[in-house]
Amino acid sequence: MTGIAVILPINLGQFLKAAGVVGSGGDAKALVLSGQVRVNGQTEDRRGRKLAVGDVVAVPGAEVRVEESGASEARDRSPRRDHTAPGGKPGGSSGPRGA
């Protein structure tokens, strides 16, 4: 079994592409809908399923474990932007549209 280090969160379709199992999102969708993808031993039909560290994704001929890349840890420590407009109101609009 191979491990693939990825930045989390990641969904099943993205992981299949990152692992080199498929070449595109369309290929990932077709593979998942074919019923040939298993996550932790269970058939998975949702391309958007969120994966976690330690999950095992199996397709015919390959079994790949989700591992966390150190890049996500650096991202978590970075400052987050505050999207609050002046005056403490979210969004930046000064009032109703057309007013």
Structure description:
- The chain has 99 residues and is α+β, with helices and mostly antiparallel strands.
- The protein has a single domain, classed as RNA-binding S4 domain (Structural Genomics Hypothetical 15.5 Kd Protein In mrcA-pckA Intergenic Region, Chain A), CATH 3.10.290.10.
- The protein has three helices and seven strands; from the N terminus they run ββααβββββα.
- The strands form two sheets. Strands 1-7-6-3-4 form a five-stranded mixed β-sheet, with helices on one face. A two-stranded antiparallel sheet has the order 2-5.
- Helix 1 packs across helix 2.
- The longest helix is centred in the first third of the chain and has 9 residues.
- It starts with a strand and ends in a 22-residue tail after the last helix.
- The model has no long low-confidence stretch (mean pLDDT 84).
Q: What can be said about this structure in brief?
A:
The chain has 99 residues and is of the alpha+beta class. The protein has helices at residues 12-18, 25-33, 71-77, and strands at residues 2-6, 10-11, 38-39, 42-43, 50-51, 56-59, 62-68.
Key traits:
five-stranded mixed sheet, Structural Genomics Hypothetical 15.5 Kd Protein In mrcA-pckA Intergenic Region, Chain A, about 100 residues, alpha+beta, two-stranded antiparallel ribbon, globular, single chain, 3 helices, 7 strands
